[in-house]
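Here is the promised in-class demo. Please do not try to memorize the tokens; focus on the logic of going from shape to residues.
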């Protein structure tokens, strides 16, 4: 349940989503497993997992929803091997080369025949809706998967006026200033032990620093070479650590004081109460963190 990453969206108008109406809306796109002819399936599942029927977990004014992605594993090498066999056999039979559209048709047939035999794997995307803060958080930073998740939500909900959060001041500009020491690090933030420096003039020219003291002279010297810091590890009030990138995406989120240890004994507690508590604690941390980070970078970028 605890988010490990976050892509942050803002509502362009006050969020009017309610748990009951959202539950009804999500039912139209509830998850259905892949059938024998499908390569993938995507839909909403209960956030609490098996044993729960609710697609919307509402607590303390926050709403958590979850999507499941099921994909058939059909390696390209397997497809290529079967294609090669079919093409060779057909070329020998027809005594000519197989080209262009004929190869594509053979590939389509191979995929269709192999699909029912392929194993499946599942992955999940969680979405935290924070109406009072006007924010929607997706637990993913892959552009493709975030787009798929928000598209599914738009298909489920008639009106979803959201857009990715963009700030007035670019992340790279302040990151670089913090590393150089030309701009003070905000009092509620501390530099972590990771950063990436990117060369503006050479896409492949970057330096990745990991498990390093970012305040050391050695690391500061790297910022004098013309490179910009595009990703930086930060800690917030000793309760959260994360890596923020130049696109305002949060990676490697860790709840240092809030999340229970993996070995915590929860056997005697009501699972629903524990889940409620965890969702609330995480949401409260986010409701404090994200607006504060937005302010650090000059607030929400105004439309031009």
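The designed amino acids, position by position:
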């Amino acid at each position: 349940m605890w988010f490990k990453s976050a892509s942050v969206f803002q509502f362009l108008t006050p969020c009017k989503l309610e748990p009951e109406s959202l539950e009804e809306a999500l039912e139209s796109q509830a998850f259905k497993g892949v059938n024998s002819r499908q390569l993938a399936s995507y839909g909403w599942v209960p956030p609490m997992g098996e044993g729960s029927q609710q697609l919307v977990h509402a607590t303390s004014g926050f709403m958590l929803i979850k999507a499941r992605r099921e994909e058939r594993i059909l390696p390209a090498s397997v497809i290529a091997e079967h294609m090669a066999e079919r093409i060779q056999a057909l070329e020998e039979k027809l005594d000519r080369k197989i080209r262009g559209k004929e190869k594509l048709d053979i590939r389509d047939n191979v995929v269709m025949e192999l699909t029912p035999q392929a194993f499946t794997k599942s992955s999940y995307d969680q979405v935290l809706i924070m109406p009072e803060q006007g924010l929607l958080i997706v637990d993913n930073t892959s552009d493709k998967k975030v787009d798929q998740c928000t598209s599914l939500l738009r298909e489920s909900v008639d009106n979803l006026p959201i857009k990715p959060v963009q700030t007035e001041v670019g992340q790279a500009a302040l990151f670089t200033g913090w590393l150089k020491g030309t701009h003070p690090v905000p009092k509620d933030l501390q530099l972590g032990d990771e950063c990436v420096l990117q060369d503006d003039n050479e896409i492949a020219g970057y330096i990745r620093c990991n498990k390093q003291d970012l305040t050391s002279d050695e690391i500061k010297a790297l910022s004098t070479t013309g490179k910009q810091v595009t990703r930086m590890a930060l800690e917030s009030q000793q309760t959260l650590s994360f890596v923020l990138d130049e696109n305002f995406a949060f990676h490697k989120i860790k709840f240092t004081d809030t999340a229970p240890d993996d070995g915590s004994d929860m056997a005697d507690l009501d699972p629903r109460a524990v889940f409620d508590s965890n969702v609330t604690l995480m949401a409260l941390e986010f409701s404090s963190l994200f607006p504060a980070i937005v302010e650090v970078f000059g607030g929400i970028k105004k439309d031009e």
